[in-house]
Amino acid sequence: MENKMRIMLGMSGGVDSSVAALLLKQSGADVVGVTLRLTEDDDGTNAENAKKVADALNISHITADMRAEFQKNVTDYFVQEYKNGRTPNPCVVCNRTIKFGKMLDFAEKSGCSHVATGHYARVERNPATGLYALKKAAYLEKDQTYFLYTLTQERLSKTLFPLGSYTKPQVRELAEQYGLASAKNRDSQDICFIPDGDKNRYLKQFLNEQPGNFTDADGNILGTHKGIFHYTVGQRKGLGTAFGKPMFVLSINTKDNTIVLGEAGSEFSEGFYVEDCNFLPFCAAPDGFECLCKVRYSAPDMPCRLEKTENGYCVRLTAPARAITPGQAAVFYSSDELIGGGTIIKSFSGKL
Fold this sequence. Notes:
- It is globular and about 70 Å long.
- The strands form three sheets. Strands 12-15-14-13-16-17 form a six-stranded antiparallel β-barrel. A five-stranded parallel β-sheet has the order 3-2-1-4-7, sandwiched between helices. Strands 9-8-11-10 form a four-stranded mixed β-sheet, with no helix packed on it.
- The mean pLDDT is 95.
- The protein contains seven helices and 17 strands.
- It is an alpha/beta fold.
């Protein structure tokens, strides 16, 4: 009897993971769909929707309770970063600790050789070196490699992205063609544990609002802010005070509870520092390595040069970039291949 590849697929009940299940099933794999319960207010709807798709495709489906792990690794981190005046990236942390951490462990214990998700990305193996490469999705508009830079060679070797060569319209077309219940589902929001999208309302449950001063770079008081977690570096709208001209958040200082503002143009930086780095094709990028970087999911790729520091890298840009935000991920590419990434610590202007 032929041994089928046994794959655990993360299923949210949405169209992407549903079509990923379809494609894996069509490939002949033995697919085990799993829906992760991540939050206390999870009402089971996602699991029910995923189960309907699994039943339609005649694949098995299970649920896994990872609420404790998710709170410890993702939501607690999210709150703490805002408390520290930084802007977190929960999707990056969730991928590292939950989807390609705990779920991969769970898959191996369940007899699965691989995990799969509905991410738009591609994994390719170089037969000459045996190394795996993480590459941008064919459909660049939905490419999600930015959130996957923490994957390692070991994890890449056990990971499948069935949607990597498909466009979103093609995915929806397949879902409709095969009558999948998720065909008309809307795309999920950015932060899954804040369904209404009101980040400030969510944070108020855990953090006290402590008003403080808006200042300029010289320390002159410009106004009063509502509490540092309401703001992020680069922000212009929603400052709550009329300054008579556009003003941008340049830095957030937790020690004295002040937020430094600057006029248009001052939000641009020539470079930044990153720490907690991970590189996929090598242990560390060589000093002076030239590549492309992305400092936000929606940002364009920008040419840069990496210079080693004691705890990470100094990233020098060939052209200034706006709103480089501490706490966010900076991800590095060579053409369409993801080389690695790290957490932005601070930005700088001028030559250092």
